[in-house]
Amino acid sequence: MTFTTLSLNGAVNLRLHHTNTAHHSLLHYSKSRLFQFPLRSISAIRFCNLPNSFHINSPRSISNFSCFAIKAEGSISEERVVVLVIGGGGREHALCHAMKRSSSCDTVFCAPGNAGISNSGDATCISNLDIADSAAVISFCRKWNVGLVVVGPEAPLVSGLVNDLTEAAIPAFGPTSEAAALEGSKNFMKSLCDKYKIPTAKYQTFTDPAAAKHYIKEQGAPIVIKADGLAAGKGVIVATTIEEAYKAVDSMLVEAVFGSAGCRVIVEEFLEGEEASFFALVDGENAIPLESAQDHKRVGDGDTGPNTGGMGAYSPAPVLTKELQDLVMKSIILPTVKGMSAEGCKFVGVLYAGLMIEKKSGLPKLIEYNVRFGDPECQVLMVRLESDLAQVLLAACRGELSEVSLSWSSGSAMVVVMASKGYPGSYEKGTVIQNLEEAEHVAPSVKVFHAGTALDMEGNFVATGGRVLGVTAQGKDLEEARDRAYQAVEQINWPGGFYRRDIGWRALPHKQFVTKR
């Protein structure tokens, strides 16, 4: 059996001739699709890891074939794309890592990036590029011929970076500032749910603290109080008592602890069940699901303590069965995409749906939308993704997701977040972290993603943020991924850090979890 590889760019017509027979086949390859007519001399055609390439398996010597390709009109060039990732956290490190593995990606820049991203070689970090200055970002893109900008954090999205890049004819993956209101305003999201019959928790919106408290008294506790705007992941209070709910209302509407983000509050029904994260790529009209993942928001073991940006995650999430995923797409994601389009506000980017699988009904309800990859869910998704990320995101920018199908590794992945002691409250910065290389040597599948690190004068990594590292591992199943991740965590010498010891506890209820060092 003999193999040959044919690299095709854009749309091509390929005719294969067998020199000894009249048998022939005309194939048309367009973007990610391959159409084949019978050819008795060819036993199989399969895609390989190269972009836009496939292998032809022949039962006879391939020397008996003469092959030629004819470019169809509209073919794209063979030039590989230069990518700029905006952001500097663990999510952006994971995106850079996936881009570096994309064979169609020529160079990866990250702005501002962090010391860990730069040190790992996953991207060239541009620490002095002001990502809040659209003109500076556009100038950089033109200077370095950037063909795709991927915006990681929510703040540049809400401030309109994608609007400005699009106007400058620079492909940008992410929503416009108008579409980013799905995350930037919980009231906007809730209103869309009302209009397009998207299942979510019962709620009311208030600007008057007295009216909010009257509603809380009527509804009783537990109840959820949310700041309308962006509050760095800290604007949601699950109040277990009426008094706690009143205090949350006063902190937002009277004391203005979240500034303008808390000038309006949503008082929401408390839903009991299991949380899950659902991600979909959207091109304005079409959406395709990513693999499922589950986050751990609470800071303490057993889901105790205050909410955080996320202390760990795993993928896939057993709670999201294939049937539930189909239901989420049908009842939540697609109505949102169609609704945004109908409102004249097409959404392009990642829809990250925070879901509650209700205990009493077993059905999914939408808790909130984020308009970017989750952190730390992005870490487990990116290590499992086998498709060319650059090409997939470019397809989304072009409105071509209907022709894309994603490939994922089998097995599972888990990330354990290591945070500075005191997080999510006040914490010490500058504490030294050692033995990161030893952690990555635990298994070939282990990858340490950096979220808040820098290098000191001696070349040591030091902590600069609350969530600092995302220790990620893959395995044939969730148990193996978990064991490898925690073995790697145990290698890291960081007295100033801590981590949850029970990531994955819902999916592995009988597992003996690690003991505190």
Low-confidence stretches: 1-78
Question: What CATH architecture of the largest domain would you give?
Answer: 2-Layer Sandwich
- The N- and C-terminal alpha carbons lie at a distance of 55 Å
> How many strands in all?
31
The CATH superfamily of the largest domain bears the name: ATP-grasp fold, B domain
What would you report as the Rg, rounded to the nearest angstrom? 25 Å
Characterize the biggest β-sheet. Answer: 6 strands, antiparallel
**What gross morphology would you assign?**
globular
* CATH top level class name of the largest domain: Alpha Beta
Note the beta-strand portion.
25-35%
Amount of helix? 25-40%
Average of per-residue pLDDT values: 86
What structural category arises from helix and sheet content?
alpha+beta
The CATH topology label of the largest domain is D-amino Acid Aminotransferase, Chain A, domain 1
Count structural domains: 5
GO biological process, one term: purine nucleobase biosynthetic process
Keywords: ATP-binding, Ligase, Nucleotide-binding, Purine biosynthesis
Catalytic activity: 5-phospho-beta-D-ribosylamine + glycine + ATP = N(1)-(5-phospho-beta-D-ribosyl)glycinamide + ADP + phosphate + H(+)
Domain ATP-grasp: 190-398
